[in-house]
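Hi there,

I know you've been waiting on this one. I reran it after we fixed the sequence typo, so this is the corrected version. Both the input and the resulting structure follow.
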Amino acid sequence: MKKLSFYSLFLILLAVTFTSCQPNDPSFDQTLLVGKWKSGTEFWRYDSDGMGVTWDTSDNVTEAEGQKFKWTLNNADLIQLHYVEVTGQYSLNKSYIVSVLSATTLSYKDDFDKSFTFTKVTP
């Protein structure tokens, strides 16, 4: 009987240990991403339909002339498929890991661990 109690206690402790050690995947509300974001002269606009556009005013590019993209945000994974005019398709894939997404701030890192931070200009 003592052996059964010992094994039961061991299994319970083992289950609790593995459950508590699992990493918590950060999750962000994608509705907070919708709007226009700015970092220096670089702008990104995320639309509620999963589309967007990016432009840089230092290159004399306006919002209407910006590069179109499709976006998805799943937990902390931000994926952007950029429109390539030569092929006429959304095929240039960029992925980021979001670290901050609030009503005013967006921060993420790319695959090369380069950080980007933006401030929301308009909702």
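Quick highlight: Helices lie at 2-20.

Best,
R. S.
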